[in-house]
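Reopening closed ticket. The problem is back. First fold of the pair:
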Amino acid sequence: MALLLLIGSLFALRVALRAMPVSGFLESGGLDLYIGNRKPQDAVSPRFGTRRNRQGGAQVKSRHRYKPAAVFGCAVMLSGIAVSAPHAQKPPPPVQPGPGAPIPLPERNPARIFAQPHPGEIATPEWSAQEVQDATDRCAMLLAGTGVKYRFLNPIREGRCGTPAPIELSAIGKTRAVAIEPAARVTCGLAATLSSWADGFLQPTARKHLDGEITNIRNIASYVCRNRYNANDKPISEHARANALDMAAFKTQSGDWINVLDNWALPPESFPAAPDASQDKTVTPPPEAKPDTATAPAPAGQIPNRRAETEPAFEPRSAFLYEIHEGACTLFGTALGPLANEAHKNHFHYDLAKRKHGAYCE
């Protein structure tokens, strides 16, 4: 294939050079090419490129003279282009990953992933005096008789974050005051719901499992102007509306602290040991039941507790945490604990987010 291209290139060069007359005779290195019966003494006619001999003879065909090096260089150049052209058109083969190389994954729907501005950087009008007054009046009515200890703060407005009537919450509970340490910046609606939770679930559960009541709650996050999980591509957090509280520990009357991180999960030794797999392969006939030793059926209306026979009993602190969290699921719009995700392994998150299909509890 390359040879055919070379021959074609030389033929095209020869045809092109025949149409290029050169005037004068070069003293050195010249190469005379003659077509027909042409003589060296022929001169170029000024018209039509024809030549007449010096004696005024008959008209003859044109004579052309060329440099040998130029002819050879053009031929080599054209042949190189012809030979290398097929190779230049082939794309390089794709690089194949090795046996242990990780396979790159495509972006997850990149059209929907884009950086959101920080909620505090979005221009938002300030609360009007009427909005602040109305929110303050509603707050005072809502917290009346709840046992909540608080004081009003200045309106908060940071972009999309804030609330017109925030309070500094220092204690909740009507039957027994539970101090919030440190004091939390929240809305009045959240404070009222927290107080109901303390009276209806927190203290009764503490008396049941801890032989006492709770005196303090460790607050680790209340109002913070941010998106969920501090991510740019997530919606605004309820913390940014002062509508959420994160609590990490509870202090008992005896002075002990019950931490969510340390006391939520059951210890490994409390779970039953896994059965031996070899026992499944051996079939043992059941013993004959004797009439006087047979197990009596459960009384009518009473269902045997199969779960209690297979699951270990809760350690008191774990049972306390599990039950107060289940109670929170009935009052708050969102109730998240260690079972939700890694971000909540050390605390409970409770907020009053409005949801269409009931509370979100995990």
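Second fold of the pair, where the issue appears:
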Amino acid sequence: MSRLLLAQVVLALCILSAAADDGEAIVSRFQEYLRIDTVQPKPDYYKAVDFLNSQAKSLSLESQTNEFVKGKPHLLLKWVGSDPTLPAILLNSHTDVVPFEESKWTHHPLHAHMDNQGDIYARGSQDMKCVGMQYLEAIRKLQASGFHPVRSVYLSFVPDEEIGGHDGAEKFVESHLFKSLNVGIVLDEGLPSPSKSYRVFYGERSPWWLVIKAKGPPGHGAKLYDNSAIENLLKSIESIRLFRASQFDLLKAGGTAEGDVVSVNMAFLKAGTPSPTGFVMNLQPSEAEAGFDIRIPPSVDSEALERRLVEEWAPAARNMSVEFKQKHSEEPLLTAADDSNPWWRLLKNAVKEAGGKTSKPEIFPASTDARYFRMAGVPAFGFSPISNTPSLLHDHNEYLSRAEYLKGIDVYVSIIKAYASYEIKSDSRDEL
């Protein structure tokens, strides 16, 4: 009896040791990806693609690299399904990350340091190298379990999302290659949740990036000028501030999600005449301008907001003008996030089977590559399996805990298995 008990203990320890080793290897691969410098504006895309291709090779996935724009490689991997007539699954992620201020970080943002609590600090740990690696690790687990997909599963690693995605996902979606894939559903990035439930996004706010310019009389700084450039710009900034405050009040009152209000943030303020020591102090500038990042939810009348912009925030009567740097004026596209959509049902149930829970579907407060797929008529959900974690996208000390990362892989195991096993054909783009 004692020998049997001893044998069972030894076996259990071996299993635990193997699981621990596997977990360490999984985390190590994640850290390796995080350490690749894909920071805008000079991301090392080729190094990232080489690393991802090495992972694809270890999983025997089909691989092809395309450059829709020179110097910006797009990697497409394929896990072949048994029924090519069924619309495929596309798991999308971007390889680039935003810049950082190294001095504001506790640990270097490209070292992927893991502290004593198991928190991994790195740019891209939440946005969104974590998700790209979770796709791959989930497939690794599914293959080890003997699972074979019915639908083909594609993994898309696109460049340039952080600067608009025009040379990345947009070019990919416009290509003959994408049209040939017969994609039925796309999963892309979401946001971390501070609670136990996972956030899911079925649409997003439209970005308006614009510059408001004001002109006025130049001259000596000792003279009082009526309708000076800076005075006119400050009037507009105050009007915008009041509008912003009204939107903030809606958010702070509760019951309204961030993706349901208009966000307005000033990105820069430019005025004055430069000098070797700073600015000329006795010269009234003839021009002043401010840049704004505005995000419009699908529920807002964008035409009415544009009238406000032209008539109130940048009126020609005050020698003001507006220049759009980016503007999406198309009708906002939403993916059905209720039980009428089988993709939603499968996602919700798969998360539940993995021990998690989805919160009420939301409008993504910013912009992601998912919009390009929706524009092509393909349903898309934004989903990052990160719970109990503050959202630190584009922030200092972006991190993801080891435990949360590993748990997210199991969530994607459940989702990919559910999606890739779904055999009903009349389910693809009509569900958008």
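Update: turned out to be a display glitch only; the data is intact. Residues 13-21 have pLDDT under 50 and may be disordered. Residues 2-34 form the longest helix (33 residues). Please close again.
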